[in-house]
Amino acid sequence: MDNEQNLIQRAQKGDHDAFAALVDEHQRYVYNLAFRAVKDENEALDITQETFVRAWTALPNFRGQSQFRTWLYRITTNLCYNRLPGLRRSLADLGDDVMSEIPESESAPTNPAREFELNETGNYLHQAIDGLDPNYKILIVMRYQQELSYEEIASLLNLPLGTVKTGLFRAKEKLRMALANYHSEEQWTIS
Amino acid sequence: MDDLLTPNEQNLIIEDALRSYPVATMPKGITDLVLARIRTETAPRFQITRNDYLLTVVLTLVLGAILFGIQSLPVYALMQIRIQGILLWQSFLVNYRWLLPLTSIMLGISLAGFALYQLLRLRRG
Prior knowledge:
The complex is a heterodimer.
Chain A: H1 2-12, H2 16-38, H3 41-58, H4 68-83, H5 85-92, H6 112-130, H7 134-145, H8 150-157, H9 161-190
Helix pairs in contact in A: 1-2, 2-3, 2-4, 2-7, 3-4, 4-5, 6-9, 7-9, 8-9
Chain B: H1 7-19, H2 30-42, H3 50-72, H4 75-95, H5 99-124
């Protein structure tokens, strides 16, 4: 992180190489976030470029009050909101009826006999995640891939904390239904 | 098989799937594209276009024509123009003096609005 701080300071002074290193470091997750939101490779590529160009322009104003990556995600989110005006509304419409903490487990217990089975189920669930609405996918990407806290996500998306929790809870419920369907289909095939 | 999965196991599998959800495949060369844009935006190359030459020629011709016109006018006509100019200015000062503060206020509001707009755009960043 010290290294990143150093790169940011050099980039603030106009060092292109330092900024290139920062782009290399963060582009994967910025692109991922944009792609999950807009569902189009070219559009996501355009948003990623625009994010870094805007970051370069605004870098002298970056005071390090938030993490650099969170700052970049904020720019990306704003660009996504500009391109998809309905996205902000559909995120806000998720409501905030889930106010309690959502239980999260570390990882599934595995044994050699079940590993193959779990992989198959995992692949099926990944397809189910692909089929979710972009608003759910944005929340999943921020929480499970970018590993941001609920508070950070709420701040980035400019949403109440309850809405973020509700969104993630509903996404999991949809996946739980998909899992139930998968298993009933499997049972049907076996019988 | 459904019977074998408890709600807790279901939760574990879903959590695992969420954590292992693959990151989208990255197109190559984003860094180069970004750097190319930054270089063109931060250091615009000084370049004289054909329009610049055209504008220079037109301005030179117009200025030359005005100077030539003024020099060719008889002294009497020049004095008349000067007198009319003074009369026009005096008439403005007497009848339309209120235009001066009004124009200043309007200009100030426009500048403040423009500055506010730029500031908001920068903050939305």
